[in-house]
Design goal:
Protein name: Organic solvent tolerance protein OstA
Distance between the termini: 135 Å
InterPro entries: LptD, OstA-like_N
GO cellular component, one term: cell outer membrane
Helix content: under 10%
Shape: rod-shaped
Keywords: Cell outer membrane, Membrane, Signal
């Protein structure tokens, strides 16, 4: 097809010298044939054969025409038609009826009519124009061609098809030298595997790549929900790789990936994005954001890094996650192979914020379908004025009611509750042991069950019969095999203490501050997440709350004891050394 324009050159006008023409009317040519300044005279073509030669005043304005097996030749290209009209002085010809232009390289153009200007070396083919070469076929109603620039153009709508693709477009310009086709106006590329639609596409026939310069969509035919949208990008049709640069989206498995600079491989299902990356999952009501992201369509998984975070959208109280790396994926349900479960994992410096529970850990794994969250690496969870720590924590959520049901703490379980959230006294209820299950009621910690070396420090209150005010009466120290502790807003009550149970209750005047805290007491107000934006920080570095120690009764009791001891000592006779 590289000699596409040269095919028409021979339509020049090197006919027999004895033929002279004197047409009655001046030839009116299409404005497309207007010559450039100082354009030289074009080379003439040579008549090979015609059955008849005529020139009459009644036909073709007195210009000579050839008919019957007409053939013209130019530099190895052959034109045949039912009739050819020759305008000798203008170096211009018209071919009419069953026009066929065959080039030496094997490319062929057929049409109902053709015109060629030997001076400008431009031609126009009209009526059912078909251009074929060894690799493709172009069909349109009117085609313009220019031998000097080596380009062909049509704007009457047409198709370009090859072994695998069929392209539909309003207009196109084809550079025969570079094999570049510039499509404009409602472009559609139809392939057995995908469809490309846009309004400005440039395709390189040598490399089989396409560049997009406007809104463009690539749709998977087998699964139309898998599609790529961009307003600036390129597509390698051989490797099925897409490079996206502007306002781009990758739709797959009900998810949408966006970013400033993106890539997607339709064969492997791998994609990546850089800059302002967002992965939306409308079905799971979740989205992830970060500076860099990757997707694995066939595995239905994704990864996000560079300050990533995820939001699980709930009707009343959303969940916010962050870490150095976030991974989301789906896998087949073990109990029902027709269903899939969704998971979210956070690695290194994992954070989660929900209004009724906040967590920090080295990593976490969240089964979104079942509402089960696993926390690893020094996990800590806060709910109201209560804190839970341990070697590992499992949190169970009611996915329908959006409540947290319970926490299971495995190894070094430790629950702390402010004895009275209305003051700043250093009084904390504490329950600890090997294993602990914490139960919630309407998003508030209600009950803790501890198994193995269970211990508790709880504050006991009672109502003054005269003043009707609640007064602190003492502290209970409990050690049991198992403990059940009920949490109220301002107190913790031991309702069960079994297996080697031992409980001592000390009035406030009989217990020192040191005995009111377990050695590994770790109440943390500096690192607690108090708003969802805190998930982005290693620590919010909130100012540590300073609690006041109220040891008046104990100090007074100790003073009385010490005074009594001093009096007793004073009564004893003193030895006098002689």
């Amino acid at each position: 097809m590289k000699n596409f324009f040269a095919l028409f050159l021979f339509i020049g006008f090197h006919v027999f010298a004895q033929i002279t023409t004197q047409p009655k009317d001046v030839l009116v040519k299409d404005p497309y044939f207007t010559p450039t300044q100082n354009q030289p005279q074009g080379e003439k073509v040579r008549l090979i054969h015609s059955d008849f030669f005529q020139k009459t005043a009644e036909k073709y304005n007195g210009n000579p025409f050839f008919s019957g097996n007409v053939q013209f030749e130019h530099q190895g290209s052959l034109l045949s038609a039912d009739e050819v009209i020759f305008y000798e002085e203008q170096n211009f010809v018209k071919a009419i009826g069953n026009v066929k232009l065959q080039n030496a390289d094997g490319s062929v153009i057929t049409s109902g009519e053709m015109e060629y200007d030997g001076n400008t070396q431009k031609g126009i083919a009209r009526k059912n124009v078909v251009l074929t070469d060894p690799t493709q076929t172009i069909k349109t109603e009117t085609m313009y061609y220019d031998r000097v620039s080596n380009k062909a153009y049509f704007n009457t709508g047409g198709t370009i098809s090859d072994a695998t693709n069929t392209m539909y477009t309003k207009s196109a310009t084809y550079d025969l030298g570079t094999k570049m086709i510039d499509f404009t106006g409602n472009v559609k590329i139809n392939n057995p595997e995908y469809t490309v639609e846009g309004n400005n596409i440039k395709q390189n026939q040598n490399t089989n790549t396409a560049d997009f310069f406007g809104p463009t969509t690539i749709t998977n035919k087998k699964n139309p929900s898998i599609l790529v949208y961009t307003e600036r990008g390129s597509y390698n049709m051989n490797s099925k790789e897409v490079y996206l640069k502007k306002n781009s989206r990758i739709h797959y498995n009900g998810k949408i990936l966006t970013g400033d600079d993106m890539y997607f491989n339709q064969i492997t299902g791998f994609g990546k994005a850089k800059g302002n990356v967002t992965l939306r999952d409308p079905k799971e009501q979740r989205y992830m954001k970060g500076g860099y992201g990757e997707i694995y369509e066939k595995k239905d998984s994704a990864m996000m890094t560079e300050k990533p975070y995820a939001v699980k959208i709930l009707e009343k109280d959303s969940m916010y996650f962050s870490a150095e790396k976030l991974i989301s994926y789906r896998k087949i349900d073990d109990k029902d192979p027709l269903k899939k479960k969704s998971f979210l994992r956070a690695y290194r410096k994992a954070r989660m914020f929900k209004s009724n529970i906040q967590v920090r850990a080295d990593s976490l794994s969240f089964n979104e379908t079942d509402g089960i969250m696993h926390l690893f690496g020094s996990p800590i969870a806060w709910s109201g004025e209560k804190q839970v720590t341990g070697d590992k924590i499992e949190a169970y959520f009611d996915t329908e009611k959006e409540f947290i049901d319970s926490l299971k703490v495995i190894g070094n379980a430790f629950a702390i509750s402010k004895a009275d959230s209305l003051n700043l006294k250093d009084e904390f209820n504490q329950v600890k042991g090997k294993l602990m299950t914490v139960y919630y009621d309407k998003n508030e910690i209600k009950l803790a069950k501890v198994i193995g070396n269970a211990q508790a420090i709880t504050y006991a209150d009672d109502q003054n019969e005269k003043t009707k005010e609640v007064e602190r009466i003492g502290v209970a120290l409990s050690t049991c095999g198992t403990i059940e502790a009920e949490f109220e807003d301002r107190k913790v009550q031991i309702i069960s203490c079994n297996i080697g149970a031992n409980t001592d209750v000390f009035p406030m005047s009989k217990i020192s501050r040191e005995k009111r805290f377990f050695p590994d007491f770790n109440w943390n107000t500096k690192d607690r997440l108090r708003k969802w934006q805190d998930i982005f920080m290693d620590t919010p570095e909130y100012e540590e709350i300073k609690y006041e120690s109220d040891d008046k009764l104990y100090d007074a009791a100790q003073k009385a004891i010490n005074d009594a001891k001093a009096k007793e000592e004073a009564k004893k006779p003193k030895r006098i050394r002689k």
